[in-house]
Amino acid sequence: QVQLAESGGGLVQAGGSLKLSCAASGRTFSSYVMNWFRQAPGKEREFVGQITWSGGGTFYVDSVRGRFTISRDNAKNTVYLQMNSLKPEDTAVYYCAAASGTVRSTEGMVYWGKGTLVTVSS
């Protein structure tokens, strides 16, 4: 069992930056591909990006590529989402999720955090 807890959300002006963290419990953190999803009000949850087990590989959706960076520290059981050049359309609840492989669907995730709200004002 892995428990995930996101932190770092808040209110930021457009063009600003935020760094989200997701802390995991348990000793098997490095066994999982870690993912970030987001859900805007009235919309479905969408995949944002992922980082592979040792951090050697990352993938981002087009809408955030070049602005967002995912990293992980397996010694601290933590994955990060650095968000730069934020836009109002980035406003959403951000979730971290763990998967056994490089799947990118909500159905493929094994564990979820409860989310942290990011609000970007114009």
The number of distinct helices, counting runs of at least 4 residues, comes to 0
Q: How far is it from the N-terminal to the C-terminal residue, by CA? A: 40 Å
Task: Write down the secondary-structure element order.
Answer: EEEEEEEEEEE
Largest sheet: 7 strands, mixed
Give the total of beta strands. 11
Helix vs. strand class? mainly beta
What is the radius of gyration computed over CA atoms, rounded to a whole number of angstroms? 13 Å
Instruction: Provide the helix percentage.
Output: under 10%
Overall spatial form: globular
In percent, how much strand structure appears in the residues? Answer: over 45%
Contiguous runs where pLDDT drops below 50 for at least 5 residues = none
| Average residue pLDDT | 97
Provide an overview of this structure.
It is globular and about 40 Å long. The protein is 0% helix and 48% strand. A hairpin with a 4-residue loop joins strand 7 (68-73) and strand 8. The model has no long low-confidence stretch (mean pLDDT 97). It has strands spanning 4-7, 10-13, 18-24, 33-39, 46-51, 58-60, 68-73, 78-83, 92-99, 111-112, 116-121. The strands form two sheets. Strands 2, 4, 5, 6, 9, 10 and 11 form a seven-stranded mixed β-sheet that branches. It has a four-stranded antiparallel β-sheet with strand order 1-3-8-7, with no helix packed on it. The protein is an all-beta fold and 122 residues long. It starts with a strand and ends with a strand. The chain has no helices and eleven strands.
